[in-house]
Structures are given as structure tokens and as C-alpha cells.
Amino acid sequence: MPTLLITGANRGLGLEFVKQYGQEGWRILACCRQPEKADALRGVADLHKNITLHALDVGDFEAIAALAAKLSNESLDLLICNAGIFPDRSLGLGSIDYDGMARAFRINSLAPLRIAEAFVGHLERGNKPVFCVITSKMGSIDDNTSGGCYAYRTSKAAVNMIAKNLSHDLAQRGISALVLHPGWVKTDMGGEHAPLGKEASIAGMRQVIADMEPARSGKFFAYDGAEVSW
Known about the structure:
The chain is an alpha/beta fold and about 230 residues long. It has helices at about 10-25, 40-45, 60-70, 100-125, 150-170, 200-210; strands spanning about 5, 25-30, 50-55, 80, 130-135, 175-180, 220.
């Protein structure tokens, strides 16, 4: 039975990942800040006894290390860094919240790197292990045609580079790395006007992950399998 660890599992894309992988019979280590308050996630876990909940604030790097130590005997086949934030999108040039921008970098960029360091041994023991970061086309320099959203865009561009770096550094350990753009999805973050449902987005990303092989490591894919320009 393959094992997945996922962050930000309590709502949106993370919760849908848990639902779909749970239905496929995966063992899932579902992480979020306050599992005791994550009613929807707890409901899914009640339906699938192979799902365990773990408290994790990805902005707390000591907590990441502590969780890795707690799960030291686990082997991971897939690790999805899904937790992320979108700072107030109204803040553009001339009204940048630099403290908010620093927090975006800590959560969106640095936390996945810290998680990779903490759980590399767990992944090494997995079967064709994959380290995956949920990113956005808004982190693509080539795709930026409108400007704005400095904190989100730059934090996602940074994590894209981190994942590209990891694809090289983890290759010798037999671990693949990739970044995935989920599309514009109807979630709390994406908003009600987004054209894509969670179910279709997650099903598409799961297929990209399933098709993963070393030659595809370090690439940037959309949920529909199309490669995205950096």
C-alpha cells in the first residue's frame, strides 16, 4: 500500500487530494495546523481508516523537524507540499506589505525546502518516490503579462527554482521532484468564479504524478499534463 504525506490537507485542493487518494486505498498522513478543528478532513478520515491526521504549521520549521522525527519509521512514496497562502491581492506597487511578503516566502517557498530536507530519508525508502510542490502559473516569469501580486508571484517563482534544484540534488537518491499548476480552481483561494472544479484538477494532477519518471523530474506541469514554461 503506497503512502502519501500531504500538507494543507484540511480544505480545498489538499482535502480533495486526500479524498481521491483515500478512495484509491493509499495510506495518507494528512497534515494541517489544527486537525481537531478540521471537520471535513476528520469526516474523510472516518471513512478511510488508512488516513491519519497530524498537526503541522509549515511556517514553524521546528515543528517540521519534530514531525519528521515522530514519523521516522515511515516510508513515503509521495510527498505533496500543498499548504500555501495568497496575500492580499490588492497590494501592488506603492502599497507593498513587506512583512506579508516575507511571510509568503516563508510559507510558499522556504517551507517546502525545509520539508524536503526533513523528509528526504523517508522518501528514499519509498517506491519510485516523488516530491511534489503545488505551485501556480503566476510563478512563471514567461507567463507574467499583467504584473501585480508581487508577494504571491515571487514566492511561487522561488519555490519553482527550489524544486528545480531539488530535482538535481535528489536524483542521486532516486527521488523525483516536480511542480504542478492546478489551474484556476473553485476553492477559498481561487474564488467562486474559477472555471475548474477541484475534482477535475486533482484527478489531472494525480495522473501527472502517476506518469512521473526520472526523465520528467524537475519539470513544471499543469493539471492537464501540459508542460508550463518557466
